Automatic annotation (TrEMBL):
Domain of life of the source: Bacteria
Residues of the signal peptide: 1-18
Entry annotated with the keyword Signal: yes
Lineage: Bacteria, Pseudomonadati, Pseudomonadota, Gammaproteobacteria, Thiotrichales
InterPro entries in the cross-refs: DUF2225 (IPR018708)
This protein's name: Tetratricopeptide repeat protein
Native source organism of the sequence: Candidatus Venteria ishoeyi
UniProt entry keywords in alphabetical sequence: Signal
Length: 242
């Protein structure tokens, strides 16, 4: 995902144009003889990586309502494009959950609950799970549930710190250092936030021109870092810039 971001960042013009969507249909993974009405992106620009969700390192389209695909008939819910490669065992787990917990409606709060609960029944790696938590944090902030959003960020930070103690691909390490800095600041731990800033600065200074994707991502984070100094504890993570 991060490599894709910087392929796009390096290739798209900076001119701003509105994101647009087109209607489509996909097969319901639960009821394979049924179709689900969804939307797919038609146009967007590199500016999506400058939007406030950058502080959580989650991006459009999954930060927009159409980026969460939902089948009204079965209740199956997932991120856009993630309706395939679901094993028979996973399908049975999800069917059982939806039978016991039929969705009452299809509003965003219901979709977020379904998103979290259904992904808990799917086999996903730790990187995906952390992105899911951060996406939920972003969504709950957007709908005004700030306490819940920040609880998700604390959960994400615990996992990020655990992962940083291991060997990680260079781009992911940079991403997690940036997030650890932001989330520590937002949690009110200025000291730890400063320590992660120093680690990130050191890591960024070590990036060479050998890997274009890593170099592109490092330059992007250098642009973002100054704003992170203004992240304060509590409230939204988005800083009020001077």
């Amino acid at each position: 995902m991060i490599k894709l971001i910087f392929t796009i960042l390096m290739s798209l013009p900076l001119a701003v144009c509105a994101t647009t969507w087109g209607s489509s249909e996909v097969v319901d993974p639960i009821f394979e003889d049924k179709k689900c009405s969804v939307h797919k992106p038609s146009s967007w620009g590199s500016y999506i990586y400058r939007w406030p969700s950058k502080y959580d390192q989650v991006f459009w389209p999954i930060t927009e309502k159409y980026g969460i695909w939902h089948c009204k008939e079965s209740g199956f819910t997932a991120f856009i494009g993630d309706f395939e490669n679901i094993s028979p065992i996973e399908v049975e787990r999800i069917k059982a959950y939806l039978k016991a917990n039929p969705p009452k409606n299809s509003d965003i709060e219901t979709k977020l609950v379904l998103l979290e609960q259904i992904y808990a029944l799917r086999e996903k790696d730790s990187t995906f799970k952390n992105k899911l938590i951060r996406t939920l944090a972003r969504w709950y902030q957007e709908i005004g549930n700030i306490d819940k959003a920040n609880a998700y960020r604390k959960t994400a930070l615990i996992d990020i710190e655990k992962q940083l103690s291991k060997s990680l691909p260079e781009i992911q390490r940079l991403e997690y250092l940036y997030l650890a800095m932001n989330y520590s600041m937002q949690a009110g731990d200025q000291k730890k936030g400063g320590e992660y800033r120093e680690k990130l600065e050191s890591a960024l200074s070590s990036v060479t021109d050998t890997d274009k994707n890593t170099k592109g991502y490092s330059e992007y984070l250098k642009e973002l870092m100054p704003a992170s100094k203004f992240i304060t504890s509590g409230g939204t993570i988005d800083p009020e810039l001077p």
